[in-house]
Each structure stands twice: as structure tokens, then as C-alpha cells.
Amino acid sequence: MRKIKNPWAGDPDYLCYGCCPDNGIGLKMEFFEDGDEVVSLWNPSPHHIGEEGVVHGGVQSALIDEAAIWYVMVKLGTVGVTAELRVKYRKVLKMSGGEFAIRASFHNKRKNVYGIDVRIFDNSGVLCTDGRVTVFTVSPETAREGFGLPEKEAFFE
After folding, report:
1. What are the 10-residue block averages of pLDDT along the chain, 157 residues in total?
2. Which residues of 7-21 are buried (b: 16+ CB within 10 A; e: fewer)?
3. The whole model's pTM is what?
4. Residues 9/21, Cβ–Cβ less than 8 Å
5. How many CB atoms neighbour CB 72 within 10 A?
6. What distance in Å separates the CA atoms of residue 24 and residue 30, rounded to the nearest whole number?
7. How big is the chain by its Cα radius of gyration, in Å?
8. What is the residue range of 59's domain?
9. Pairing between strand 100-110 and 80-89?
């Protein structure tokens, strides 16, 4: 796996709930490129709890959404907004036990709308949650010029 650098880290105006390392209540997700997938290895904090010992379902949805958007930025070279998010909770995702793997991959494309599949595995490799994120994107040129998306090289050292 190859580490993906967060080009916005350190910007005082940047506080993304999903991926800002300095957001005290955020998810602080970090990403890696693994072949055709974008992967996050993530450990929950106590404020991510729902029922006792279980990662909150809304937090799981946020993990899926964030991973899909990073897939769009890194693998597709553009930015977008979530048009639809479908989540299926298959097994309880327990807070204990260590690092979870969140894996995002391409599903389909129709014009400038992409379907991204995201799966959350517990620390034993068991699929607990999966989702499909429909992302409405802009052209790569608009992403760079209008939204400040850096070139792909900026995501890697």
C-alpha cells in the first residue's frame, strides 16, 4: 500500500470532519492507495460510540462517504458531492479490537456521476458494513481551477 498525503493538512481553515488530523471530534481518517482501491485504516475514539461498545451507525456512514470522496479525488482526479448514500449494516462493528479497514472501489460511471462501493471490515477481516456512494462530479479542469484540487502528484511523496 502506498500512503496518500493529505495536501490540506496544516491549513488553519481546514477542519474536515472526516480527514482533518486537527479536528478534535473528527474521524481523522488517513488514506492509502492499494491497487485499484483507496483504503483507510481507522481506529475509533470513545466519542464515536453508539450503543455500548458499538461504532455509531452515523459514524460508519461518514466513514463510507469520506472514503468515496477520497477515491474520487485520488483515483479519478476530480471533486464531487454526494448525491446518494446507501448503507447496509451486516454485522455489529465493535469499538474494541483495533484497526478497521475501509476500502473504496469503482462501481460504475454515467456521464459525470460515479458509483463508488465502500466496505468496512473489522480487525478480523469480517465485512461489517458496506455502502454505495453516488457522487456528482465536475470536470478535472473545474476541480483544479474552481475548487483548488491539487494535481495527483500532490497526494503522494
Report:
1. 95 94 94 98 89 92 98 97 98 89 98 98 96 97 95 91
2. ebeeeeeeebebbbe
3. 0.95
4. yes
5. 26
6. 15
7. 15
8. 2-155
9. unpaired
Per the structure, how many domains does the chain have?
Answer: 1
- SS3 category, 144: helix
Q: The C-alpha cell of 130 is what?
A: 458496506
Q: In whole angstroms, what is the distance from residue 15 CA to residue 99 CA?
A: 23
Which domain CATH number covers 145? 3.10.129.10
Phi, psi of 152 (to 5 degrees): -55, -35
Cell readout for 35 is 491497487
Residues forming a β-bridge with 3: 32
Which residue intervals of 43-103 are DSSP H helices? Answer: 57-76
Please give the grid coordinates belonging to residue 31: 488514506
Cβ atoms 23, 93 nearer than 8 A = no
C-alpha cell of 145? 481551477
